[in-house]
Design goal:
This protein has helices spanning 10-21, 33-40, 51-59, 95-107, 124-136, 171-181, 194-227; strands at 2-6, 25-29, 63-66, 77-80, 113-116, 142-145, 164-168, 188-190. It has a single domain (2-227), classed as Rossmann fold (3-Layer(aba) Sandwich). The chain contains 7 helices and 8 strands. 36% of the residues are buried.
Length: 229
């Protein structure tokens, strides 16, 4: 498959490498030219990724990092893997997501499966990505949600062993997305809807926050006590 991944941070790059290793032809698109130039040299900023393997994939043309949106034009699958941080009032900042949508509308001239991996609230795929893309492009796309589950540097739970929760807006998109992810993921769960898939990531992040926050607080208290002596 001809695959493009928009965003080459710890989520997008990990996904791009996994897809390339599975035999897909992958374009890794990022607007940060410095990031792209480092990747072309086989240098990665993501913990746990093998730079030797990265160089091999680039040499054998399974993976091509670039900042040129035109190179995603013939993609069969495009994955959005951009940051979705909280803004100053603790609401989701979808600036990067909107930028990715504009890139898709401008660069894709043929039907493709659009998959969102970026963390966001339920309804993002159906009510934002799909709606905005349909306003900007006359091309008919299919849409699916496959929220990222990357834990950088974790050697036990990686992109191959971590179960994925996936669903499309329709059955065809769901089937296509699941077939793609099964080429490099051992376990793929078919959610009832893309909103359920999106919600699963919110629950996961909430679970992590509840479990990690007390540990961080305890470490701060220990540090303060140690510094008193």
């Amino acid at each position: 498959m001809r695959v493009s991944v928009i965003g080459q941070g710890y989520v997008g790059l990990t996904l791009a490498i996994a897809a390339a290793e599975a035999g897909h032809s992958v374009v890794g698109l990022d607007v940060d030219i410095n990031t792209v130039e480092k990747l072309k040299k086989g240098e990665t900023h993501v913990p746990g990724l093998d730079e030797r393997k990265l160089r091999e994939l680039i040499t054998h043309e399974f993976f091509f990092p670039t900042s040129d949106p035109k190179l995603i034009s013939n993609s069969q699958i495009v994955i959005i893997a951009v940051p979705t941080p909280l803004n100053e009032i603790r609401k989701p900042d979808l600036t990067y997501l909107h930028s990715a949508i504009k890139i898709l509308a401008k660069s894709l001239a043929q039907p493709a499966l659009i998959i969102n991996e970026s963390t966001s609230f339920p309804g993002t795929l159906r009510n934002i990505i799909k709606v905005e893309l349909e306003k900007l492009s006359k091309v008919e796309f299919r849409y699916a949600s496959a929220p990222e589950r990357v834990d950088p540097g974790n050697s036990t739970w990686n992109i191959y062993s971590t179960p994925r929760v996936i669903a499309g807006i329709d059955d065809i998109a769901t089937d296509q997305a699941i077939k793609f992810y099964k080429t490099f993921c051992k376990s793929v769960y078919r959610a009832q809807s893309c909103e359920v898939a999106e919600a699963s990531k919110i629950f996961e992040n909430t679970f992590r926050q509840i479990n990690i926050a007390p540990l961080k607080l305890l470490m701060r208290l220990v540090f303060r006590l140690v510094m008193q002596f």
